[in-house]
Amino acid sequence: MESILATARHMFVKYGIQKTTLEDIARFSRVAKATIYNYFGSKDRVYLEVLNREADAMTARILEEVARMTSPLDKLRVFVFSSFSLLRTSADIFNLRSEFLGHLVAGTENIRKKLFTMQLSILQPILKEGVVTGFFRNDSIHAARSILYAVRGMELTWLLDPESTEVDEDIETFFDLLCRGILAKEDAPCV
Questions:
Q1: Staple 13 to which of 29, 46, 92, 135, CB 3.0 to 4.6 Å?
Q2: Can you tell me the distance from the alpha carbon of 107 to that of 159, in angstroms, rounded to the nearest whole number?
Q3: In whole angstroms, what is the distance from residue 38 CA to residue 52 CA?
């Protein structure tokens, strides 16, 4: 099964979900097409399993990056930047560009919601720690959601124009604005 999923991931990234066939996945993973049907039932289910694993891997990488930091501000910065960076590297597997053209796979939205919930579960403790230590003034669920929605908005901007050179600067500006709004002390450094 792992071989099938690894092959499918590679093919979805390279060719997209629309151009990848179960026959191709079977041929390149050296299994019978019936084996794939037995495990998954359809190409869309293969894609959803690959996508689900990618979301889990993204969350694990964000957690690893955040765990290396000690201050809540550094954790928040790493969270924002690694969330965006990881989406950039996973954009093709998430099939995001073609989904904006209306080629949604049923079930994709559930995985995106799961990813959002997992990111929220990382972000909320960062904000809580920041309030406890006096770095931040707000740790509400609404603040965490607002930050995630803003990060997703930045991601959308990049997805619609991946050649844009301004997105990285915009993320820096967003983080600066975020810090100025969340820091408890006005003169605290936002670096």
A1: 92
A2: 20
A3: 19
